Amino acid sequence: MTTLKLEGRVIGPWVKEFEGVWKSLAVSLGKKKLLVDLSDVTYMDSEARDLLAEIHSETGADFLADTPMTKYFVEQARLSTKHLQEGD
Predict the structure, then answer these.
(1) Domain boundaries, the chain
(2) How far out from the chain centre does Cα 7 lie?
(3) Contact, 34 vs 6, CB < 8 A?
């Protein structure tokens, strides 16, 4: 399993950093399962949440979320993936 850990406020330029790390990691994942650790995230803007949904859609990643807010972000990423798969 490979873990991608995010911390703090994932907004603005930090979303671009998140995306860059994700893209470089994606090429080396292979069949490894991805875990996205959100336990130290304090906020994610809409662009970051969209990227989270994209990652979930592409990999079926698992998430570590332990606050109501991060659990909400995970729920939204999973729902976005479900809607994409259903063609909504």
Answers:
(1) 2-86
(2) 12
(3) no
Amino acid at position 54, single letter? E
Q: Treating both helix axes as pointing N-terminal to C-terminal, what angle do 13-29 and 46-59 enclose, rounded to 10 degrees?
A: 10
Whether the model clears a pTM of 0.70, i.e. scores above it, the answer is yes
Q: How far is the C-alpha of 54 from the C-alpha of 85, rounded, in Å?
A: 12
Beta-bridge mates of residue 40: 7
Residue whose entry in the numeric block shows the structure tokens 């949440």? 49
Sign of CA pseudo-dihedral 3, 39, 23, 78: positive
Give the architecture (CATH level 2) of 2-86: 2-Layer Sandwich (3.30)
The residue that leads in pLDDT, 77 or 85, is 77
